[in-house]
Amino acid sequence: MKFDSNLAWKEASAAILANREVVFALAGVFFLLPGLAMALLFPAPEPSAGLDTDATVAMITGYYQSILPWMVPMVLFQAAGTLALLTLLTDRTRPTVGEAIGRGVRGIVPYVLAQLILGLAIGLIGGTVLAIGAATGLAVLTAIGVAFVFVLLIYAGIKTSLVAPVIAVEGERNPVAALKRSWALTSGNSMRLAVFYLLVLVVFLVVISVVTAVIGIVASLVGGAHGGEVTGAVVSSALNAVMALYFVAIVAAAHRQLAGPSADSVRETFE
Question: What are the helix (H) ranges across the chain?
Fold first, then answer.
């Protein structure tokens, strides 16, 4: 089956509008609040003028190391929210919000394990390629190795982008099987999915950047620098939550298209 991006967008938008009260509330809880908390409590450092590359890398590395204890629970929390939203947007049995969240929580372990397995596989392959390039001492081969790892990350991300709906919609609890299922579903449509995801991402990022900048400038003029920073963080977090919600709905629509009627039969088997 060929992936229809126009149909996926229409279905995703329609699903959000049809359930807007519930899904926007869940997006606020699972995406907006954690993002806003991170933005206000742990703002990213801004490199000062004159810092060299090594100092900048060290500063960024230190920042992420300092927030790691907070990032891990936030990622798990957002994973539960993603799976809960997928359940609400796709389950024909019309589960309650509590039931959807419960299913999302139960799906965290296989979802996280699938991401860890994927990360280890990419790290092993990418690390080997980079090590070979570095061992040759040739800058060209090292650059090719870096480019290969970047392409591998993108490709693997597209091929496994349906892991979440496989777990939430089909009820798959084996992380390896979920990865294989997503890989099979995206077969023959990887490029279409990649272009679609990229277009949606670019549009959202442009909108978020422009709206946040304009509102931040106005807020700074009215409430001072601190007021502008807080307002910018709130607006940015809210728009990022909306983007996350739409991507969840898009992934659900893509899975519905590519899985077809088999998704419902698989879910009934697990239930």
Answer: 5-18, 20-27, 33-41, 53-90, 97-106, 108-136, 139-159, 163-168, 175-185, 190-259, 262-270
CA-CA distance, 187 to 191, in Å (whole number)? 10
Please give the average per-residue pLDDT across 87-91, as a whole number. Answer: 86
Q: Residue 107: what are its φ and ψ, rounded to 5°? A: -90, -5
The two three-digit tokens of residue 178, written as one number: 């979920």
Residues shown for the chain: 271
Q: Nearest to residue 156, comparing CAs of 181, 122, 133, 126?
A: 122
- For residue 163, the Cα-to-chain-centroid distance in whole angstroms is 12
Cα distance between the two ends of the chain:
26
Mean pLDDT of the chain, nearest integer: 88
C-beta neighbour count of 135 within 10 angstroms: 10
Q: Which pLDDT belongs to residue 51?
A: 67
Helix/strand/coil percent split, the chain, to 5: 85, 0, 15
- Return the sign of the alpha-carbon dihedral for residues 43, 47, 48, 54: positive
**Cα–chain center distance at 171:** 20
Give CA–CA dist 217/229, Å, rounded.
Answer: 9
CA 232 to chain centroid, in Å, comes to 22
Measure the CA–CA gap between 264 and 271, rounded to whole angstroms.
10
Picking from 266, 244, 246, 119, the residue whose alpha carbon sits closest to that of residue 185 is 266
pLDDT, residue 261, reads 61
b/e sequence 69-81, b meaning 16+ C-beta within 10 Å: eeeeebeebebbb
